[in-house]
Amino acid sequence: MATRPSLEVPTLEQRPGFDRQPSDLTHKDDDKHIRHPEDGVNADADHERPSAPSTLHEKDKAEEIEKARGVAKIEALYLVFGKGLKLWILWGAIALVAFTYGLSQMTTYYYTPFATSAFGEHTIVGTIGTITAIMAGVSKPFIAKLADLFSRPFALAVAVLCYTLGYIIVASAQNVNSVVGGQVIYTLGNTGIDFVSSILLADITSLQWRGLVNGLYAIPYIPFAFIAGYIADGINAYSADGWRWGFGMFCIIVPCTIIPAILILFWADYRAKKVGALSLASSTYAREAALSGQTERRTVLQMLIKYAREIDAIGLLLIGFAFGCLLTPFTLYTTAKGGYTNPSLIALLVVGGVLFIATCVWEFRYASHPIMPLRIWNKTFICCVGIDFMYYFSGYFVDAYWSSWLYVVKDYTDKEYTYVLNILTVGLTLFAIVGGLIQRYTHKYKYLQCVGISIRIIGCAVGYYGPAHNNSNAVIVTSRTLISVGGGISVISSQVAAQGSVPHTDMALAMAILSLWTSIGGSIATAIASSVWNRRVPEALTKYVGDQFNATEIAEIFGSINVARVTEPRDLIIKAYNEAATPLFLASLVTSFVSLIFALLTTNFYLGEKHNTIEDFDIKMRSQDETAPEVVAARAREAEEKAAAKLAAQGELHH
């Protein structure tokens, strides 16, 4: 990302979405302002900043009123729930989402190689990984825009719908194309559930607690790591059709367990609107009350165009298709006639390059609401993007085919196989909690993250040692454990630092951009790994067992990890897969050092009771007396009266 000129941080009134009236909702009365964080936020001007006070009758007044709707609604939540039973119900609903999502992730992720192998198309795993990684990255800015423009529960409901539909398609697939299509739709839903949950947690926690709370949200992964093995064994998930049950059961479980959280959050929105809490959370809502009946009504088509602009639909489509066209050929060239000289692959690469250039031009020149606005690119955020981009880039060199490689070279039972695969997830979760605790009591993150990345590098080195030395259980377990220890600490630190470096209105978008670039890093590495795997494995098989099997039989071995695992001579098959995988382990080790360089450049700002380092914005829940409906309603009327008076004064000044 090119360096951008640093501009003076604008005042509160100058920044879009930050013209809310002071209240004791979450901000300090009378001295609410944007502060310079220690690393100096790059607050570049962008298209959305108003250049002068707008009047009552300007055409874009309705657009200004609707800015950051989801942010205002979630801030109003403090006045709806307060302290007491309702708050515990909210946390309980979020915990239920965490448990359901954790169980889903700990089982279904590992079924894809068996779903593709059932149709003799295991080689397409890399293509699926690339496409879904791009989809996961591109979908997050879209979800963030939905959450900000409409509300958090609306975005969560859309995600659950896509999740369910996608898994229905996968579970009922009759060919590999259905598996791929279902995975793409499911990825939008799966990503949405996880991302909206992360936004909710960041909305309602201060910097000092955020790392720990995010770590605790993932704690269901630990018990499910052990339960998942029994589930996979019980439904015979690694058999020809058992994987269908593995996907299909979550089509019922996920909607039933997440709907309570959606209903509670929608109730909170309704309650906040009814008692007037929205006018206290944002002056845009106070103005909306004052302007009721005076804003210009739009047709359905105009509304669709408006929301398409605010979501930046063109930008999302351009970047998704650009990376899809650029990376997919790397996963398909071994099965395409003529390899990279195939006209279709050449066309994809050319179109991808053109679309990437078009994406840059659109985002930085023409987009009215860009998915990557200049204002959020401060030094710390840039470094966080660099850390996580290289974290995923180095990790997916190995992880793209690690489960397939492990299944072939080790004679684990289904239960043991699942346990070993889950070492990384359990470690990431456990040490994210440890990292969050350290952040809570040291109020710092930088040096902790540097230590974590260093431990991960050691883990990558141990992993590289494995394929060349018979893949002992000690080497495999030690490598995955060290990678998980370092990764858990690093990821939680990047999340807290990125969220803390931007104001609340930009937080969801900053989280989405961080995830977008990490997904791009992972998808690039997956595409490269797929290219290496699809070329080297058949070559190695031909080298070691080519005198015993013809080309068709070698293709069959390569096309299914189930076939590869039972093919004799076993020792030569293992040797072939180890030799093919070794360059991927080496690439992972070498590139993992880059994250450490970025980590050393971040600013070690203080993690305190503020929501972020930009605003004077405390996170605290009020007592039930302070959140009583009549008290909130009285304060809301006062805020709306002040807003009306302010608008009237602006109108007179204009005339």
UniProtKB/TrEMBL annotation:
GO terms for molecular function: transmembrane transporter activity. The chain crosses the membrane at residues 87-104, 124-142, 154-173, 185-204, 211-231, 243-268, 313-333, 345-364, 376-397, 417-438, 477-497, 509-533, 584-607. GO terms for cellular component: plasma membrane. The keyword Phosphoprotein does not apply. One of its GO terms (biological process) is monoatomic ion transport. Signal peptide: none annotated. InterPro entries: MFS, MFS_dom, MFS_trans_sf. It comes from the Eukaryota. Residues 16-59 have a biased composition (Basic and acidic residues). Its main location: membrane. Residues 1-59 are annotated as: Disordered. Residues 90-607 form the Major facilitator superfamily (MFS) profile domain. It is a multi-pass membrane protein. Keywords: Ion transport, Membrane, Transmembrane, Transmembrane helix, Transport. Pfam families: MFS_1. It is found in: Membrane. Belongs to the major facilitator superfamily. This is Siderophore-iron transporter Str1. It comes from Kwoniella heveanensis BCC8398.
